[in-house]
Structure formats: structure tokens, C-alpha cells
């Protein structure tokens, strides 16, 4: 019994360190007592493969979420788009008697593609394990979470989606559940929306919105996605960058040629691609494409002020990421985020390493990623890149080159424009924005980090344009989560703190 | 019986078309009567995987060759190097009573690495099949060769090594066999050498030569490797380019980063590599590295004359390969071959296609191939490239970057210099060179193509330097064989004509 008193004291100490208000402390205490069950359910969720294009498994994820919601007393339904066979979004709603406001919570359950070979030995995308720290920083693998097993708050769970963005689904549902279990009263209606196509550009979200407009109406949608600030402080993000990807393929000879027999004669598509990419962006990170930085809507005074108060993170990041000099040496990370980007996500021509052979490749490919800021139109921005490529002497084609095209043009490039969308930014001074800020601040003693726009992209403009709702993002996961890449992971204490944050927002008036 | 007479007439007609002298006709007739057995043995040989680094299967190839030699009455032995565990070369010798000269015949039985995914549907590297023509040009798959099955001379055999260079082993052994079976007398001693490490740079050939110097002595070694001239004419090559590969890895941040959250801040190694490669070679194929074209020993008058008589192949090649403009628009293929090259064999950073994700990659790799001409030293040539890279602001490392290196240098590159060797060129006017030319000419009515140096590389300088032998290459396979790449293939009539050519050389005095 004495032992239990100590345990209680230790718990109270733990709770008061991380949480601000008494409300938040109650939720934190509930989480601490139920952490084993929460983790157990979460690793089951992570074990279901969730690559967006894997429609069979994606549907299994949706069904799992419906079950989770039922267990928590939330009635759930699948919302489909207009197009047949669209991956459904999962919707749920809690109607609060007498409430005049509705707050929606959004997360996505699909994940980026995985190349299991690139994951660290012992880590597999869809076999979640506990790790003490990132393995590349000397972390150790604890193993799969066993029912009832001890949990260290500092450990992480590794697996695709662990951070981006099954963490969002998990935290939203458990925040509601914690409020119910601890007997807290709600003042607003709560809506839940979990999307399954975010990582392929939310290609049907507009259809789902149009078809379910009434159901999805809310005063504000709160997006639970992305990482908290590098400083570790709780973070609110008022905007996101837009995004569009372009796949480029430059062609050489029709068949791979012996680099001895044809070297100095056959055009090398890898070199051509290198020249083309070099022409797009200089060695100091400046994009050289005509008009690339035009159209940008400047920040407001409040946004500029918030920007100036964001803690400096560059020194820490440089050290942790092993970066000697950032791409643009005179610009901070946060300043760079307020500008559009042109990045190479991937590049390939024939093979390197043990598979390399002495050939002149037939083609060279690059995937470009254009991030957009408020004011940019994604189609226009891509058109500027295409105009630049044409200016470099390329004839643009839509498929593999035909005989005629080969005989007619010295430089052929295939350009596939992927689905894209524009940036979005909500004014920080709106009353609903202020309420959310107060709620999040109530869960922590440290000042919040308020970011006018985050670097990542979500199709948030749809919430404004179709639903007429405001939209604000509250990211909850650790910044070093390897989101979109191999060895993705989430810190367990960030999950618990995320739940506390969301529970506080759910209680606004 | 009448049918047989017609068959005999048709055969004679066939023989007289492709072969010049009566000697050659006898061999051709023998081949025609035995084509089924020859092909049957060859497809068995091709079915043994032969990637140079696959030591278990490489040894199976060596054992198969020993068996082939035994069946043809040639005593065979495995020659090893000084280093333990070196892939053996297969050696054999026929001593001719009263002969004062020795002619050696060399081929290699190992092949370039394979990436089965890159092969055309229905083709597998080590499951040889007959095809009517290259599949990319509308050819059809006939299927595996079945014992006793009909053979169309225009068909091809597809599989790794079919052209490069099991064709050499097959043609040499069957040339000798054809002479024995048709009762032809030899005037010189014949030596056979089949190497198993050619495609990894003949890394132990020097050891094998040093250890077996007496055994391998010959007046001239005839190298059976590489393709005949594009015109289809029979070809003699008096020299080869040297070769050295360099693997480059440019580094970005320690872990893959979300291209939204870190775009415009984290250095992108793919872009850095693009800039670096662009700085090495301009858009007209001119290498920009300091001193790259120095050290070249000019061609002699006979070599220049031979060069001027080589049939123009560029127009045909452009059409067939779908090349609108060669790398250097004002230079012919053969002129380019007389110069050193810098080619990108492969390039990779993160992923493209369905595996692409929105990351800033951690590294970008390129494999460079430097071909060398007479006068270049391969180490010097590589040093010029390294000096250029340093001049572009890179710090060169030998392994993965350490924390200290990351904190100290803005640009890190790992350079792995692969094993290389220098070019070689035998004067065309030497008596032995003249004898071989006469022998090859006796098998065809068309003028030969005499090439001072071919584009490809073989470590032929070792024959001169260690064995003190002259060395001349007689390539036998079709030029469009996809050597070193996917869908490698050899035309069946080129195999038969190759055997005829070699049989004629074996009969010189």
C-alpha cells in the first residue's frame, strides 16, 4: 500500500511537469493509468500496411478505425466520393446538447510508399517495434510491444505511419475517450474525419467534401498532422504550403549501349539530366526559373511578429542532421519555409553500386517536388518549370518517345505532372484561432510556437473553399520522426502530450 | 534421295555466299551439318549463371569449359594466380609437330552483373531462349532451344554472356574441333586461355600471367571479344581503350528529410551531384577537366589510313538507336573512339517512379567510366578527375562521413577508385599482324574493317608487358547485342561465321 502512495506521488509529479491546467492534469493521469491498453491498440493499428495505393490494406485500416471508434462510443461511417471505388474517409460526430459551435478534427491514416530494403536492420515498415532512440543515433531495438509490458516514455515506436499520421488518428480518438472516461463535459459539437489518400495528394477529398458538405460543416477544422517545433515546444500552425510533383524522364539511345563501344558518341541522358537540373537551381539554393518567386502574398504584421518569436532551431538542426552549411547559407529554416521550393526527391539512371555496369543508360529520371506558398497557383508554378525546360532546348512528350519524335528532336523529355494543390493560411487574430491558442497553452507552461505556415503540405484550402470552415493545424509528433522515409518513428511521450493537447481543444466554448 | 541432293546444293550455295576460300567452305559445311549439336551445347553453357562475383557459379562455368575441351580432344587445366581463391582461368594447348610459332586464343567466360527486372518480359539472363530479332524492334520469342529443333540463321540467342563473351569461348573451341573433324592440318601450336574475371577488370590476370609465363608464351594472342563493325563486315582490331571506374557519393543530411519541412534549407545531394557532373563535361560532349585530353599518343600514318577506310556507320546507328544528334555533333563515332571518355554509367539518389517519396535524399551516387587511349595512364587520368572535384569545393573521403568531417567541411564526397588498366595498340604492319589479316580476309569476299583501336577495353597491355606477346583482337558478334545490358543476345549466323574466321587464323603458317 505504501508503495502505491509513492506511485501516486510520482505520478502527480510527472503530471504537473508536463501539463498546465487541472483539466489537463486529469487527462494526463488517465493516460498514465491506461498507457498499456493505448499502446496495445496502437501497435495493432500500425501493423496494418497503409501505403495509399494498396487499396485492399487501406480498407482494412478504415475498418480498424471504425472499430476503434465504436469501442469509444463514437458512431462511425465511411464517406465516399463521387467517383466509384474511391478510398473512403472515416467520419464520426458527437452532438453536444445546447452547443452552437462545431470543431472538427482531421488526420489521415494512409502512409508514404516504403522500400523495406532501405529500413535499418531489424526494422520493418509494418512490424512496429519499440526502440530506445533512432538507431542511426545509437538507439537499440527493444522488440515488439508485448501486452502489459513496461513502457518508457522516452522510447519510440517504429513503423510506417507511426508519426505520419496514424498518430493523429490515435490521439484524436483517445483524447475524446479520455474526456468521456474522466467525466469532462463538452461545450461544442465534435466531428471526426480520417482520410485515406493524403499521401497521394488527397485526390478525392474535394469530392468527399462536395458530397458530404452539410455533415462536414464546422467552425474550424483542426488538423492533427506533422511535427512539433524542433525546440520541442507545443506548436500551432496557421497555414501550409501547397505542393505539386513533376516526374521528368530524359531519353538517350533506344537501347543501353556499351560505354566503351559508344562512349564519346551516344548522348548520355544522365549527363543531360544533370545539366538540366543544374540549370534550374544554383549552388546557393536560388531557383533560376523565370518568375519562380513572383505571385507570393507577403506576411501580415502578426505573422511577421510570430515568425520573429520562433525559437532558433538552425544550430541544433545543423548539428543533429550533420549539415555544415544550409542550402542558402544566409537564410534560416523558417525564412526558407515562407518561400516556394524546387527539390529533387529522387534521381535514377541505370544502376549504381554492385548492379552498376559499363553502359550508357537509355534514360534518366528525376522526381521534382514544388512546394508552394500563399499566392502561388500550382498549375502556374509547374508551367514555369516546363517553360524553363523548353527554354533549355527540350521537346516535351507525354509518353515514351516515338520513332518520329526521336528523328525530329535532339532533346526529348517526358513530363508527368502529378496532382497538386495550393497553399492555405488562416489569420492568427480570428476569435476561433485565439480560443484554440488558449486551449493549447493551457496544457503547457512553456510558450507555444506559432507558425504562420509550416513547410509541409496538406490540401487545407479545400476546407475553406468547399466547406467554408476555418482550418488550423496542431502538429503533435517529434520532429525527428523520419516522416516519409525509412525508419519512421514516434516518441511515446509526444503521443500522450498530443492527446492532452487535443482534449483541451475539444473543451473550448 | 533427290531431296538430299537439293539440300546439298542449297548448302553449297549458302556456303559460297558467306565464305571465301575453299578451306573456309569446308569448315562452313561442317558447321551447317552440325549446327544442332553446337547450339545444344551452347545453350547449356549459357544456362550457367556467370556474373563475375558469383564465385560458385563462375567455377561451374570453368568446369563446363574443361568438359567441352575434353570432348574436343584438348587437354585442359585450371590456371590460378598467386592470391588464394582467385577465379581460375582455363588453359589448353595443342602442340603441332614441327611448328615454330604459337598462336594463342583468348576469350572470357564471366559476364556483367544482371538486374533481371530490367530484362524484357519473357527474357531471363540465365534461361537462354531463341528470338527472331531484338524484342524492342518487334522480335518474337521462339522459346528455349529444344534438342534437334530447327535453326534459322537469322535468329538470335538471348542471355547474359551470349555475345560477351561466351560466344568467344564457344567459337574458339568449335573452330579447332571443326579443323580436326574436317581433317585440316595445323602449322602452328595453338594455345587456349579463357578468363573468368574480365568483367571485374581482370584483377588477377597479371598474377596468372606471371605464374604461368612459360605456358602462356605465344607469338601472338588473338582476342575473341566484342562486336564486328556496324556494317557487318569482318573486323580486326589492333588496340583497345584502357578503362577505370570511379564511384562517387555526395552526401546531404544524415537522415532523409521531409521535403516540405526542410525544403529550402537542407542541402540536396542530388542537386549537388548534378552540379558536379555538369561541371565535368559540357553539353557538346567536351570534358572540362584540366588536362583530360593531354598525354594522347597520335595515330601512325597506317592507322590514320585504316581509320579513313572504315565504312561510315553513323547514319545507320543514329536511325537504329533513335539518336538525333550524337554527343559531339561534329565528331564521328570512330573519331570519338580515338579519344578518352568520361561517361556516367549510373546515377541514383533516393527513389523515382512508384517508390518516390517527398524527401530530401541523404546521398546521391554516380558511377563514372573513364575510357583511356594510348598514352593515358589510368591512375593519372583518375587523379585529374579527383583534382577537378576538389577544385569544385569538395573534401574527398574514403568511407561514410564521420561526425567530425560533417562538422568541418561543407561538401563531402566519397570516391572509390576501381581497378583499372591502360590502353594497348599493336602496329598493323607487323608480319604476324599481316598473316592474321590475310587469314581473316580468306573467309570473306567483302573487304575487312581494320580498326586501330576499338572503343571497348581489355587488359591487353598485360600480354605485351608480362608475356612479351603481340596481341590482336578479332571480334565476331553482331554489334546490336546489348552487351553489358539487359536483353543481351547473339545472332546465330555470326557465331558460325566467327568459327570460320577463327579456324582460318588457326591455319596460318
UniProtKB/TrEMBL annotation, chains A, B:
Name a biological process GO annotation: proteolysis
N-terminal signal peptide: 1-24
Keyword line: Hydrolase, Metal-binding, Protease, Signal
Q: Name one Pfam family in it.
A: Peptidase_M20
Report a single Gene Ontology molecular function.
Answer: metal ion binding
Q: Tell me which PANTHER family the record gives.
A: BETA-ALA-HIS DIPEPTIDASE, DI- AND TRIPEPTIDASE DUG2-RELATED
Which protein is depicted? M20/M25/M40 family metallo-hydrolase
